[in-house]
Design a protein that fits this description.
CATH class: Alpha Beta
CATH superfamily: Aldolase class I
Distance between the termini: 55 Å
CATH architecture: Alpha-Beta Barrel
CATH topology: TIM Barrel
Shape: globular
Number of domains: 1
Number of strands: 16
Helix content: 25-40%
Strand content: 5-15%
Low-confidence stretches: 1-10, 23-32
Strand order of the largest sheet: 6-13-12-11-10-9-8-7
Number of helices: 15
Mean pLDDT: 89
């Protein structure tokens, strides 16, 4: 079985791209309305700053047309891979195991396994996952640092990816920028379909005095699989990643439920503005490249169905879910959620947080929901929002009118 990128019919792919280009070029693109270019305010005499908006600050406005939710499509395609829902699972040990990656794949989404997580460090991480769920708050960070000090084993990395492939779903794995060159060969040999390079922030122009940094453009060019890269939180950073050859850009900067990036580093990017800015970069790059479409994936602060709706309306093609899927009964975190930032050996920028459990993974995506808090039936909420505003598919819904609350 070939593990490289599937070679679909060229005519079909050209028609798909041409349709997207035609749509985008005729839109009065809404993305700049939430963008940060012209919204600077004076902080003090010596400093100005951009006014930016979170998903909570923005709401979708109903239009004059409505339609039945049953006629709405939530399908999403990146490169040659088609999905029934615009959902990627965050590569976090509290969310994704090989089993939950398979489960999400069968439900129509894309599971992304953390290839530097417990599943590639330990032959059987189940006892450690159970221990993490029971840790007292005051010792959780130090114990996480100890557990994750075990080296990543390339043979386990290959085994986990092959377990997912054996189930017949699309295979995706994630590495940090720092470990990408070290383990990428093993990842490709294992037969990954999509490769994710994910960090708190990823740039196409990283500078290091100690080691040769990853040459992102050359790395992507030499691979035979599509690469999704992030996070990026500005127009310029995203445009550079698009020019490097990325098939998709993750939008976000430490804005997830388990991050403490603002408290530890003083850095934060409100997501509605970040998504709108990166969507504008996608539009401009589409023209610059004469038709190459790069997907925008909101990664962070998408904890409820309303956040997902707003992310798409602001210009995202899909979302990467962490806490939302960590609430599934099947998820390895048992109602707890943490990411790689929580066990950094020198400067943790995240923590283990309790998110509770809201239902099975199928119920979280498709319902039924037993609570009115936006934690379950995410796709039902998206369909309802699209139907209430009269839009047929996700690409159309990016045109939805939005309002910003007074701050």
């Amino acid at each position: 079985m070939a593990h490289g990128r599937p070679r679909g019919p060229q005519d079909s792919r050209r028609r798909h791209v041409a349709a997207i280009v035609s749509q985008l070029r005729h839109w009065d693109a809404p993305f700049s309305r939430l963008g940060s270019v012209s919204n600077e305010i004076e902080i003090g005499r010596g400093k100005r700053g951009a006014q930016a908006y979170s998903f909570d600050d923005v709401a979708v406005v109903p239009s004059r047309r409505t339609r039945d939710a049953s006629g709405v499509s939530t399908a999403w395609q990146i490169d040659a891979y088609q999905f029934g829902v615009p959902v990627m699972a965050a590569p976090m040990d509290s969310v994704m195991s090989p089993a939950t990656a398979v489960e999400l794949g069968k439900l129509g989404g894309l599971g992304v396994l953390d290839l530097e997580g417990l599943w590639t460090r330990y032959d059987d991480p189940a006892p450690l996952l159970a221990e993490i769920a029971e840790l007292p708050g005051e010792t959780a960070t130090s114990r996480l640092q100890e557990i994750y000090s075990e080296p990543v084993k390339p043979e386990l990395l290959v085994r986990r990816l092959r377990e997912i492939r054996a189930a017949g779903v699309t295979v995706a794995g994630a590495l940090s920028p720092q470990r990408t060159q070290e383990f990428s060969a093993a990842v490709i040999d294992a037969g990954v379909d999509l490769f994710v390079i994910r960090g708190t922030t990823v740039s196409a122009e990283h500078v290091s005095p100690d080691a040769e940094p990853l040459n992102l453009k050359r790395f992507i060019y030499e691979l035979d699989v599509p690469v999704v890269v992030g996070g990026a939180a500005s127009y310029t950073a995203a445009l550079h990643l698009m020019r490097s050859g990325a098939a998709g850009v993750l939008v976000g900067f430490g804005g997830g439920a388990a991050h403490t990036t603002r408290a530890t580093l003083g850095i934060h990017a409100p997501m509605a503005t970040a998504v709108a800015d990166v969507a504008a970069a996608r539009r401009d790059y589409l023209d610059e490249s004469q038709g190459r479409y790069v997907h925008v994936i909101a990664d962070g602060a998408v904890g409820r169905s309303g956040d997902l709706v707003t992310a798409i309306a602001c210009g995202a093609d899909a979302v990467m879910l962490g806490a939302a899927l960590a609430r599934a009964f099947e998820s390895p975190g048992c109602g707890w959620h943490w990411g790689p930032e929580a066990y950094h050996p020198r400067l943790p920028r995240g923590e283990r947080v309790h998110v509770g459990q809201a239902g099975t993974m199928a119920e979280i995506l498709f319902g039924p929901s037993r609570r009115a808090d936006g934690h379950a039936n995410l796709m039902g909420a998206l369909r309802k929002a699209m139907a209430s505003t009269g839009y047929l598919d996700l690409k159309e819904f990016q045109r939805a009118s939005v309002v910003v609350r007074n701050l």
